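User: Fold this one for me? It's 2-keto-4-pentenoate hydratase.
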Amino acid sequence: MDGKWINYADHLEQAVRQGKGVDPLTSLDPDLTIQDAYQVQLINIDKKVKAGSVIVGKKIGLTSLAMQQLLKVDQPDYGHLLDDMVVENGGVIPFSRLLQPRVEAEIAFVLKQDLIGPHVTALDVLLATDYVLPALEIVDSRVADWKIKLQDTVADNASSGLYVLGGKPVKPDAVDLTLVGSVLYKNGEIMNTGVGAAALGDPAACVAWLANKLFEFGITLKAGEVILSGALSAAVHAKPGDHFRARLAHLGEVSVSFEG
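Assistant: Here's what I get for 2-keto-4-pentenoate hydratase.
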């Protein structure tokens, strides 16, 4: 294992210990590659698993064209979901758990079969999915002021924070996920709207991308895992006391609040 990866993983963990963001890794090492960044991510995930956390799924980021253009990339990224990142629907989050949170509305897939790359298709994903749910992802960054490039967010577990699952289970063949509309509210006010097709044209295609990408690291998507398939619209800044609610057509509602 490359010693610099370990140092970079610890650098990001400093943000958690100190409660404030750190300098981006790309400012410390302009030659940091995306493959390096995934190794840094895996080091911190392995630490957390050894400390007792359990991997319960994955999240996909940068699925919208706008975000890819912003970071000057042509592909999504992914991170790991751990059991201690789950917040119950309608729950209240202590703001001290996060550094600089933003909230996104997404479609979550819960698998009933393993998905093994490298040739997974969107149809394979639908066949392997037990049900889908509306979700809120609370993204967060250990990098100060969100001054990130692709390598920074990859190393930082794809800027993962917490997530909430809501609604009621819907079979994937009961709805056209590309046409599912979403509305995200903050304190009762509409912040943005979106549609399933905003995520790489099809949320199931996002999950297929993930399964195929994970093949490069010898990782398989497992039955029972939760997959957050990517934001349907822009992330919205959260402050203490804020309440967020998302309505997704045919899938229901999901909500969360932040302590004042």
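One thing worth pointing out: The domain at 3-258 is CATH 3.90.850.10 (Fumarylacetoacetate hydrolase; domain 2).
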